[in-house]
Amino acid sequence: MIDRGRSVAVVGAGIAGLCSAKLLSEFGFDVHVYDRTPDVGGVWSVTRRYPGVTTQNNKGTYAFSDFPMPGAYPEWPTGEQVQQYLDDYVEHFGLRHMLRLGTEVISAEQDPVTERWTVTSRLIDSGETAVGEYDSLVVANGIFCDPFVPAYEGRAEYEAAGGRLCAASDFHDLADAEDRDVLVIGYGKSSCDVAEALSDVAASTTVVAREVTWKMPRKLANVLNYKYILLTRFSEGLFEHIEQRGFGRFLTGSGRFVRNGLLGGIERVARRQLRLDRVGLVPEGSFERIVRHAVSLATEGFYEKVEAGTVSVRRGRSITALREKDGRPVAELDDGTVLPADVVVCATGFVQRVPFLSAAVQERLLDEDGNFELYRQILPNDVAGLYFVGYGSSLFSPLSAEAAALWTVNHMLGGEIPPVEERREFVRTRLDWMIERTEGKHARGTNIIPFSLRHVDEILDEIGLNVGPGTRFLQWVLPARPSSYRDAAQVLKRRHAVAGERGIVPTRQVG
After folding, report:
1. Does the reported pTM lie above 0.85?
2. Can you tell me the distance from the alpha carbon of 118 to that of 63, in angstroms, rounded to the nearest whole number?
3. Domain of 83, in residue numbers
């Protein structure tokens, strides 16, 4: 049994923070959720949504296990719809009183004796500070914490000439691009989304991409929804895992010809459907490199606009400096080209940071290269009472976050885990493998793509809450349904004799 007064601070009110708060409160913990934005949603907050943003997942897979997206939503919801869905989640489960929105966590200090956390926060509007004490701290600020904007030479001169340099998540209004020359930096989903949207109003739109990568059409050959290709266990089995097993071992071993044939076929269809040969944007290497960092869904209309000349792509190029020329803001590329650039939008990734933790704590979280060393992407090796939820780049973000939150609750309730030396070895081995398979694009040790379901398996297997073999078999050929996991919390309540609003169910395997 737990002390019903035990308190937890959660930093972040996005997907990971909200499901952590919901599950912790159901198990009797006193929870406060801090977020510097004025609304819930994390990357979907009104303060971070760029024009044209939609989900990569379809609505059926981008949802919590016990709270499906509205049936009226389109297959790929907009950013505004996702934020509304998360706000409805807060309302439905009565989480509003736990939220401390518009409140930035300045510091979280741990007492070396009691191991309790002192959290100092500041209201964004007034600057007023407050201090709270908690038994545990859950970091849920996300792997898309702070947008990365390169430190371009000449920025001050460029901005003095009227130029605007910003991250994609800081560009909110299409009108700000009207009749202006726009450069979008990067080639991920966000850069293509932004470029396609801004091109409707901009005088010119140019994508500057150091590298072009493979994209997956929403519907392959305009018929087969990509969820049947990339959101199943079969798709995960096509790629070599450090602990390959079952049919996946066949697909990457003696049955490799099947795997290669399937990936080759998808590559050919994608090349033709997205006009990659015609527009000169066939990526280097084979299609399997799509999973090096994050699977990117093709933006609707982007390649059509490239072919029509509405959007231009400077492939293999990067900005070396921003300048003023003849009274106008411009950008210099590494091939010497000078482009007019009233607006430069950087979709150049994010920095995973926990700035509110002291340098001493961060030294115990990170390896010498700055990678997070977290067991199951959740638990530090050497810091008590600290948990990370949502620190795995997943194709099933809500489900992955729920699994991590369940693992966290179980650990707080006294659930057993391997000894620290065994955990340390596991983390190091996984991190080395992650760096190798992503060609260094491991997002400081938070990249679990494409093994999203495998990661959920490992988390839930360890705490005995995974779905049964029948469900896992269906997930080989059909996209995983988050609702298959909806009973996991009730099973955990029964195990720890915790009563909840929805009652107690007999202990059994979920699914």
Report:
1. yes
2. 33
3. 7-145+352-495
